[in-house]
TrEMBL record:
The chain crosses the membrane at residues 12-35, 55-78, 116-137, 157-185, 205-223, 229-247. It comes from the Eukaryota. Coiled coil: none annotated. Keywords: Membrane, Transmembrane, Transmembrane helix. This is Uncharacterized protein. Residues 263-290 are annotated as: Disordered. It comes from Rhizoclosmatium globosum. Residues 281-290 have a biased composition (Basic and acidic residues).
């Protein structure tokens, strides 16, 4: 485990505290939105099976891990043992990355299969499947060092694994970003067919998310020498990323409810016309009988 230069200023401690509060509010809002807006208000009973969709689980894992990550940093501010806290932060950080990759893939896979060749989509699927192993492998060297003591060799191994994980994350992000941009561009062509609005929402907010991840990785590489600097900069971008995905979820839900209301209105109108026609025909029959 590498040594940590940790000497936060008052402003940095304030920023971390604000980030902690925001993370708590966002995670609480997600739970409310899933339980109330997506379940109870549409007439469903809240069950674990109903709310435990891949989207909800991965997004909740991101929120909880971000909250835990920042809470761990607060513990560090309060004087907790650095090695223990940093190992915990590695675990929470890995969980956030895994949750993001799974959520992004689940949202984008419809576009991926439409735009990319089959062999590329299979390769992306394979990367997504092995990503949890890769990201959680980053925790192992620090955990061993925490138990057995300092080891330069394990530090190097952990650094290599972190670089590999960063490369996978960057590759997937740039691929997702490219697909989103291609879809948005093709949807704006004069002779293009009207695209699915859900794909447009995913592409819009997915592009923002991909850019935020790239910026977070860049800031991490530039500020990695000073713990509080890279932590705060990365946390700010991850906070914005999580907020972006929450807004995407809200917009997708609104789109779904809008289509459902439109379908119900069309059905009601068709029934009204049918009843009106039947009533008129019955009136004509009665008039004829007279």
């Amino acid at each position: 485990m590498t040594d940590i230069a940790f000497n936060p200023s008052g402003t940095e401690m304030l920023v971390i505290s604000v980030l902690l509060g925001l993370s708590f509010i966002e995670t609480l809002f997600l739970v409310y939105f899933i339980v109330v807006e997506e379940t109870l208000k549409v007439g469903h009973v809240v069950t674990l099976k109903r709310i435990s969709t891949p989207f909800n689980v991965s997004l909740f894992a991101m929120g909880l891990s971000l909250l835990s990550l920042i809470a761990s940093e607060v513990c560090l501010l309060l004087g907790a043992q650095k090695d223990i806290v940093v190992t915990a932060e590695d675990c929470f950080f890995s969980t956030y990355q895994v949750g993001y990759i799974i959520y992004s893939y689940q949202r984008a896979k419809g576009l991926l299969s439409t735009i990319l060749p089959t062999y590329v989509t299979l390769f992306v699927w394979s990367l997504v499947q092995i990503s949890p192993l890769l990201f959680y492998a980053q925790v192992i060297p620090d955990a061993i060092i925490l138990i057995d003591g300092k080891s330069t060799k394990l530090d190097e191994i952990g650094h290599i694994i972190s670089i590999a994980g960063g490369c996978v994350l960057l590759f997937l992000d740039l691929l997702f970003l490219s697909v989103f941009i291609i879809f948005i561009y093709s949807a704006r062509l004069p002779n293009s067919t009207k695209p699915d609005n859900r794909f447009l929402i995913v592409s819009k907010y997915g592009s923002i998310a991909s850019l935020l991840v790239v910026l977070a990785l860049v800031m991490f590489s530039l500020l990695s020498d000073v713990h509080e600097h890279w932590f705060i900069s990365s946390s700010v971008f991850f906070q914005l990323l999580y907020l972006d995905l929450l807004v995407m979820k809200i917009e997708l839900h609104r789109d779904k409810m809008g289509k459902l209301r439109s379908a119900n209105d069309s059905t009601a109108e068709a029934r009204r016309k049918t009843r009106s026609t039947s009533t008129r025909q019955e009136g004509e029959v009665e008039s004829g009988d007279k």
